[in-house]
Each structure stands twice: as C-alpha cells, then as structure tokens.
Specification:
Elements: H1 2-17, E1 22-28, H2 30-33, H3 49-56, E2 60-66, H4 72-77, E3 89-93, H5 96-101, H6 108-112, H7 120-134, E4 140-143, E5 151-153, E6 156-161, H8 173-187, E7 191-192, E8 209-212, E9 219-222, H9 257-271
Parallel strand pairs: 1-2, 1-3, 3-4, 4-7
Antiparallel strand pairs: 5-6, 8-9
Helix pairs in contact: 3-9
Length: 283
C-alpha cells in the first residue's frame, strides 16, 4: 500500500512538472503556408518554422493559417471567414506581399484610429482586433518580413520579382518591417524582427544566381549584388537557383532549411517564456 502511494505521488509530481499543452495559431503568407506543403518546394525544404518550434517546445500545438500569396489586406478582408479559432497564442507574419503588391503602408495614426483596410497599418488593426475578440488574454507575436533577393517561382519562371534592394511603388520593404515594429511598441506586443536579423542579410540569402553572361551567352554563377544587373529571361533561361545556390532561401524569397532554422530559433526565444496558465503570463 505504501509503495502504491509513493508511485501515485511520483506520477503526480512528474505530471505537474510538465507544461500543459498550449495552442498556437500562426497567421501568415506562403512562408507560413509551406510548413505543411513541402511538396510545393520540390522538397527543397524538409521542415518549416512551426514544425521546428514544436520540436523544441513539444507542449505547443500549432494551427497553420498561412495563405499563399496573401497580403495583410487579404487577411483583414477575409478575417471573419478564415476559420480562426480561440487560441492561447497567436503570431502574425505578413508584409512581404504587401510591399510587392504596392499597397500603401500608411501611418501609425491609421492603426490608432482604425481607419480601415486601405493601408497596411489599417489592415493590422483589423487583424489584431479580431484576435483580441477571440481571446483578449492571448499574447500576439508580430513577425516582420525578412529581406529578399530576386524571386523566381520553381514551377513558373514567369512568376518572378526583384528583391528588397530596390523600392516598389516608392516604398522600401524595410519600411514595412519598421511599421510592424512600431505597432508592436504601441501595443506592447513582442516583435520578432527578421528583417534586421544578421543571418538573413541579402548577401546570405542565396549563394549565387545562375544567369547567362550577356556578352558571352555562357551560364555564370553571379553572387549578390552582381546578379542584380544581369537580366533573366523566363521564356528561355534555365532556373537560376539550382540546389548549389541555396543558402538561407531556396528561391530568393522563401526560406530554406537554414532559413527556417533561424526563424524558429527566434520564435522559440519568445514562445518559451509562456506557460499554460490561464493568463499565459511570462515566467
């Protein structure tokens, strides 16, 4: 009887020492979406950032709310039809598609006054309002867009875009990252700043871009920034990012395993501070 009591006491101690499961809804674009659609990377990626986070923090259960190609405006417009659920933690990882789409960034005042879905600031207000309506106590982690070089889609070379080393519609991608950071500061929300993360600098995103030398017509491996001045013809040229070109991204935009490992490392730093208390207060 005494032995049984000791075993039960030990089991209770072990059970109480384990963190309870917490739910995490990750909202984002293709960088989030691809976590559960690795075939769409031609299996160049083996694990996305959510899978990697859960490997380090197994008490977390994630829901993937990544939407391929969507902007914060698209998320805000569909916010009531996405099937978002009450969760213990939310993350919002958007902005790179807003920049490429040329959406007006707006000002912090648009966020503060809730002026609607015409600017990125306004879109984020709609998103954050929805998450707070679902669970007012849930931490909301904001993730800035990362830098990007020239993107070429694996399955359609005509789907391509230049990198964040240039303006789009008179706006720098860094301005979008700073806007998200300013929302975080205003709302006292944690911000994971990927744009300024040392390991995700432009020169580290790909090893090279394989392009035809305009003078000689010979394929040449151009590092960044040399390749930014060399034309790419999607109708006739080979895919410019063979496996050897992969560094922190596999296509100039989407993270590789190395890139996702860096992203998950930064998220783990934030997420491990929370436990499954009713208020999910930081330890």
């Amino acid at each position: 009887m005494k032995k049984l009591f000791l075993l039960l006491t030990l089991a209770c101690l072990i059970s109480s020492s384990k963190p309870n499961e917490i739910s995490w809804v990750a909202i984002g674009d293709s960088i989030t979406y691809l976590n559960d659609h690795l075939d769409e990377t031609e299996n160049r990626v083996t694990k996305g950032y959510m899978t990697r986070v859960v490997e380090k923090l197994p008490f977390i259960r994630y829901t993937n709310q990544g939407h391929n190609g969507w902007t914060s405006g698209g998320i805000a417009r569909s916010i009531d039809t996405l099937g978002l659920v009450k969760a213990d933690i939310y993350s919002v990882f958007l902005g790179t598609n807003d920049w490429w789409a040329g959406r007006p960034l707006g000002r912090l005042d648009d966020y503060q006054r809730n002026t609607g879905n015409n600017t990125v600031y306004g879109s984020f207000r709609i998103i954050i309002n929805k998450l707070r309506a679902l669970n007012p106590q849930a931490p909301i982690i904001l993730i800035t867009p990362m830098q990007r070089v020239d993107f070429v889609y694996l399955f359609n070379f005509k789907n391509n875009a230049y990198g964040s080393y240039r303006e789009k519609n008179g706006q720098h991608l860094e301005s979008f990252a700073k806007a998200i950071d300013s929302i975080g500061h205003y709302e006292h929300l944690p911000v994971v700043d990927l744009f300024h993360l040392r390991g995700l600098q432009l020169k580290k995103l790909v090893n090279y871009k394989r392009l035809k030398d305009p003078q000689r017509g010979v394929y040449t491996n151009y590092p960044y920034p040399a390749f930014t001045d060399v034309p790419f013809n999607p109708a006739t040229d080979e895919y410019p990012y063979p496996v050897g070109a992969i560094n922190k991204t596999y296509d100039g935009l989407h993270p590789s395993d190395k890139g996702y490992a860096l992203i998950s490392r930064e998220l783990v730093k934030v997420l491990k501070k929370y436990k499954n208390d009713k208020d999910l207060a930081p330890r």
